[in-house]
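Treating backbone geometry as a discrete language has practical consequences that deserve illustration. Part of our work consisted of pairing the sequence of a single chain with a tokenised description of its backbone. We regard such an encoding as a compact summary of how the chain folds. The amino acid sequence and the backbone structure tokens for this protein are reproduced below.
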Amino acid sequence: MRKITAAPVLTFSLLLLLIVVLATGTDYLLLGRFSLGDFRGVIMTLGWVLLVYLYGIAVYRIFLRYFPLKEGEIAAHSGEEFGYQVYLLFYLLLFYPLTRNHLLPTPLMRLLYQALGARLGDNSFSAGVIMDPPLTEIGANTLVGHDAVLFSHALEGHHLSHAKIRIGDNVTVGAKAIVMSGVTIGDGAMVAAGAVVGKGTRIASGEVWGGNPARLLKVSTSSVK
């Protein structure tokens, strides 16, 4: 595992300070002038938290415009590594608590992941965790089950690389399944609950995979034309 260096930490700290200042100023301008009675403190605090996340998402997306996550190996001490480490601090310190708290309803999680850069087709939802939203593409009418995990990075010792996860239409990823970087899942396929789909695996349309490591179990007859 690579150590996060001082430059990304300082950059993230400055961006977080900007977010806090913007949220505090906006909170005061929107709510501070009104008489909110006995609930003033509670309302202003909730408003501040909401604004922190709204500004946080905006600053995060602007940062990714200049330092986008790219597929392939990430060399040590490179500009890509700097961008990834700042992105990682954003995700782990600001957004990860939202994706793991099980408090947000699944439809709101869909909006959150889209705001963080994931591509989700119509009527697709995740009740699991998408670790690298900018590198995740999911088609229409697809469900990622409870506590399933999708991560598009591979961190092996000092080796770090990115590869997109691409999931088609009408796919089911079962609860607590793990989908690793570079996986492609075709239309109508299914990943069984608890399965571990290894890096770079290609699951064809209509196939059912399960196990650890995941392997082909059968081809769904309903998807065969």
